[in-house]
Specification:
By secondary structure, this protein is of the alpha/beta class. The protein is built from 23 helices and 14 strands. The chain has a four-stranded mixed β-sheet with strand order 2-1-3-4, covered by helices on one side. A four-stranded antiparallel β-sheet has the order 6-7-5-8. Strands 13-12-9-14 form a four-stranded parallel β-sheet. The longest helix is centred in the N-terminal third of the chain and has 52 residues. The chain is elongated.
Length: 677
C-alpha cells in the first residue's frame, strides 16, 4: 500500500474513532490545529488552481473534511460536558474572539453562522447547480466541435481523445459538485445544532454535577461553547469559500490572482474616474479629506502605471512580431511539411463554403463524420481523416476530391438549387438546368426551391447540395478504400482483435504471415466490396490455409468462401430468384490453361484475341441483366473466379464475380446467359 493511500485511510479511521472513543484535550488541540491548517490549504489551492480539473477530487475532499470536522465537534462536546476543559484551542477562541464577553462572543458567532448560511453556502449551491446543468447541456456541442476539428485535420486523433476525456471529466466533476455542496450546508447545520446542545447541556452539567450557580455555569460553558463553535465554523467557512471559488472559476484555464488583478485594474480610464470621485468626496464633503484624497491619488497613480504598461506591452508585441517575421524570412524553408500528403481531401470553391461553415448552418462536417461511421460499419475499416479546405482557384460552385494528393473526381453544384433525377418511370418532365449526377453520372436537372414539392409529387428523386457532395465522396471512398488501407491501419485492426482473441493473432502474425501479406488479403477483399468487419473469421481462415500457401490471391479466395454468408447477404435477395450469368466450362479451361505460376504469384498468359473475345461475350451477356435492372453478377468455378475478375475488371469494373463455393445452399439462381468462346 502506498504511503498516500495509508495516510488517507488513517484520516478517515481517526474520524470514526473520535466519534466513539474519548480523546485527551492535548490531542484535541493538535487535531483542531491540523484541521484549521488543512482548511487554509484547500482554500489557497482552489484559489490558485488554473482549471477546475486540477481539483477533480474536490467533492471527495469535501466529504472527508466534513466527517472529520463533525468528529472533532463530537470530541470537543464530550470534553466540555465531562471535564469542562476542552483544551487550549477552544478556550483561546472563546476568550480571544469574544474578548471574554459572553454577549460579544455570541454576536460574533451568530454573524459567522449568518454569513456561511445566507451568503456562501446558498450561493455556492446555486452556482454548482447551474454550472452542472449548463456543462451537461453543452456536451453535445463540444463533442460535435471536436469531431469537426478532427475531420478537418485541425487536431489529431490523440488530441481529440484528450479533449473528449476532458469534457467527460468536467461533466463528472460539476455533476458531483452539485451534490457535494450539500455536505457543506449540512455540516453548518450540524455545527449550529451541536452548539445549542453544548450550551444547554453545559449549563445543566455545571449546575447539577459541579454545583455551580446559574451565572457561573452560563459564563463558563457559554464561552467554551462559543469557542468550540468558532473552532469548527471557521474551517467550515474556509471550505465553503473554497467551494464557491472553485465552482465560480468554471473551466477557465487561467491564473486566478494575475487575471483578477488585470480584470479589475486593467482599464486606466476606470482607475482615473474612481480617483476623481474619491478626491471630490474628500474636498466637497465632511468626510476625512486626508484619507479620501490619498486613496484618490493612489487610484490615479495606479491608472497611470497601468496605461504605461499597456503602451510598453504594445510596443514590445509589435517588435516581437517584426522580429518573428524577419526570423521566419531568414530561416530556410521547412521542406518536410511540404512532403505530407493527406489521404483524402475535399476542396471546394468559395460558393460552397456556407455548406461547410457551421456558423452559417452548414452540416457538411457532420455528414463527413457520418460517412466515416457508415464506411466503418459497411466495410469494417477506418476511413482516414478527410481534410476539407476551400480553394480560390476553383470555380465558385466547383469541388474536387483528391486521394493521396491526386485529383480523382470532381463535381459542380448550384448552391440554391436542388437536383432532381428521374428514377425511370416518371413520364412528365419538369423545367430546369440539365446536368449529370456526379457519383454515377446519371442525367439530372437542377430545380429551384419552388419546384421541389411538385418534382417530389411527380416521383422525381430530389437531393439537396450537401447530400450530393456527401454521396459523391462516399462513392469515391468506396472505390479507393483498398489503397487507403495502410500497414498501420492493419496493425491497429490486429491490435483491436488481439484484445479479445490474442491466441489467433499470435498464431497468425508474424509466424505464418507477415503484416504486408495480411494487408494484401484485406485489400483484395475491399477492392471487390467485401467487408472485413468479421476480422476473426478472416484470421482463422488465414491461419488454416497459410501453412499450405502464402499466395495472397489464393488465400483471398479461401477467405471469401468463409465469408459467403456476408457475400450472399449483399448480392442475393432472400426468398427471391436471382438472375445471373454463368461461364462456360471451355472458357474456364482456357483460362486455367493460361495461368502461369511464379514465385511472385500467378498471372494470365491468355492470347489477346481470346481475351477480347471473352470480354466481348461477357459484355453481351451482362447487358441482358442490365436491361432487366438486375445486378451484373457472373458465377464461375472457385478456381477460375479470381483470374476471370482480374481479366474483366479493367473493362467491366462494375461486374460482380462470385464463385459457386461462395453461394449458400438456400440461394436460388436463374441463368440468363452463358459466356462462351
Amino acid at each position: 500500500m502506498k504511503k498516500a493511500d495509508l495516510g488517507v485511510a488513517l484520516y478517515i479511521v481517526a474520524a470514526f474513532v473520535m466519534l466513539i472513543v474519548p480523546i485527551p484535550s492535548t490531542l484535541l488541540d493538535v487535531l483542531l490545529a491540523c484541521n484549521i491548517s488543512l482548511a487554509f490549504l484547500i482554500m489557497f489551492r482552489c484559489m490558485f488552481a488554473k482549471e477546475v480539473l486540477e481539483m477533480s477530487y474536490f467533492p471527495t475532499v469535501l466529504l472527508f473534511t466534513t466527517i472529520f470536522r463533525i468528529a472533532l465537534n463530537v470530541s470537543s462536546t464530550r470534553l466540555i460536558l465531562t471535564t469542562g476543559s476542552p483544551g487550549n484551542v477552544v478556550e483561546t477562541f472563546g476568550n480571544f474572539v469574544g474578548s471574554g464577553d459572553l454577549i460579544m462572543g455570541a454576536i460574533v458567532f451568530v454573524i459567522l453562522i449568518i454569513i456561511q448560511f445566507m451568503v456562501i453556502n446558498k450561493g455556492s449551491e446555486r452556482v454548482a447547480e447551474v454550472t452542472a446543468r449548463f456543462t451537461l447541456d453543452a456536451m453535445p456541442g463540444k463533442q460535435m466541435a471536436i469531431d469537426a476539428d478532427l475531420n478537418t485535420g485541425a487536431i489529431t486523433d490523440a488530441e481529440a481523445k484528450l479533449r473528449r476525456e476532458k469534457i467527460q471529466q468536467e461533466s463528472s466533476f460539476f455533476g458531483s459538485m452539485d451534490g457535494a455542496v450539500k455536505y457543506v450546508k449540512g455540516d453548518a447545520t450540524a455545527g449550529l445544532i451541536i452548539t445549542v446542545v453544548n450550551l444547554v447541556g453545559g449549563i445543566a452539567m455545571g449546575m447539577l454535577r459541579n454545583g455551580m450557580d446559574i451565572n457561573t455555569a452560563l459564563n463558563r460553558y457559554s464561552i467554551l461553547t462559543i469557542g468550540d463553535g468558532l473552532v469548527s465554523q471557521i474551517p467550515s467557512l474556509l471550505i465553503s469559500l473554497s467551494t464557491g471559488i472553485l465552482v465560480t472559476k468554471g473551466s477557465k484555464d487561467s491564473d486566478f490572482g494575475s487575471v483578477l488583478i488585470k480584470q479589475l485594474f486593467g482599464m486606466p480610464k476606470a482607475c482615473y474616474q474612481v480617483g476623481a470621485i474619491l478626491c471630490f468626496l474628500g474636498i466637497a464633503t465632511p468626510l476625512n479629506a486626508v484619507l479620501f484624497l490619498a486613496l484618490g491619488f493612489c487610484f490615479i497613480l495606479c491608472g497611470r502605471n497601468m496605461q504605461a504598461q499597456i503602451e510598453t506591452s504594445g510596443i514590445e508585441s509589435a517588435v516581437d512580431m517584426e522580429e518573428a517575421e524577419a526570423e521566419e524570412i531568414r530561416q530556410p524553408e521547412n521542406v518536410n511539411s511540404l512532403l505530407q500528403v493527406d489521404p483524402i481531401e475535399l476542396e471546394f470553391g468559395y460558393g460552397i463554403i456556407p455548406l461547410a461553415d457551421v456558423n452559417q448552418g452548414g452540416d457538411l462536417l457532420d455528414r463527413v463524420v457520418m460517412i466515416r461511421r457508415q464506411i466503418a460499419l459497411e466495410l469494417g475499416t477506418v476511413v482516414p481523416i478527410i481534410r476539407l479546405r476551400d480553394n480560390i482557384q476553383l470555380n465558385p460552385n466547383q469541388y474536387i476530391i483528391k486521394i493521396k494528393g491526386i485529383q480523382v473526381s470532381e463535381g459542380e453544384i448550384l448552391f440554391d438549387h436542388y437536383m432532381a433525377m428521374n428514377p425511370g418511370y416518371v413520364e412528365e418532365e419538369i423545367t430546369g438546368i440539365p446536368t449529370f449526377e456526379p457519383s454515377f453520372h446519371l442525367p439530372a436537372i437542377w430545380i429551384t426551391e419552388g419546384q421541389r414539392e411538385r418534382a417530389e409529387s411527380l416521383g422525381y428523386t430530389v437531393v439537396d447540395p450537401p447530400s450530393i457532395i456527401a454521396t459523391h465522396l462516399t462513392e469515391v471512398i468506396r472505390q479507393h478504400i483498398a489503397e487507403l488501407l495502410t500497414r498501420q491501419d492493419v496493425q491497429n485492426l490486429v491490435n483491436n482483435l488481439k484484445e479479445t482473441n490474442p491466441s489467433i493473432v499470435e498464431e497468425l502474425v508474424p509466424k505464418l504471415l507477415g503484416l504486408g501479406e495480411v494487408q494484401k488479403v484485406l485489400q483484395n477483399l475491399l477492392t471487390e466490396g467485401v467487408s472485413i468487419r468479421d476480422l476473426l473469421t478472416i484470421f482463422e481462415t488465414l491461419a488454416d490455409y497459410a501453412a499450405s500457401t502464402r499466395d495472397t490471391d489464393i488465400l483471398t479466395e479461401y477467405v471469401r468462401q468463409a465469408l459467403k454468408r456476408a457475400i450472399c447477404a449483399k448480392y442475393f435477395a432472400p426468398n427471391e430468384t436471382t438472375s445471373v450469368v454463368t461461364v462456360d466450362a471451355k472458357v474456364e479451361q482456357e483460362i486455367m490453361g493460361s495461368v502461369k505460376q511464379t514465385e511472385q504469384g500467378a498471372y494470365l498468359t491468355l492470347d489477346p484475341e481470346k481475351t477480347r473475345t471473352i470480354i466481348d461475350h461477357t459484355r453481351t451477356e451482362v447487358e441482358k441483366l442490365e436491361s432487366l435492372g438486375k445486378p451484373l453478377i457472373v458465377i464461375t468455378s472457385p478456381i477460375v473466379r479470381i483470374y476471370f475478375k482480374k481479366m474483366t475488371e479493367q473493362y467491366l469494373p462494375e461486374l460482380i464475380v462470385v464463385s459457386y463455393n461462395e453461394i449458400e445452399p438456400n440461394i436460388e439462381l436463374q441463368s440468363v446467359g452463358t459466356v462462351k468462346l
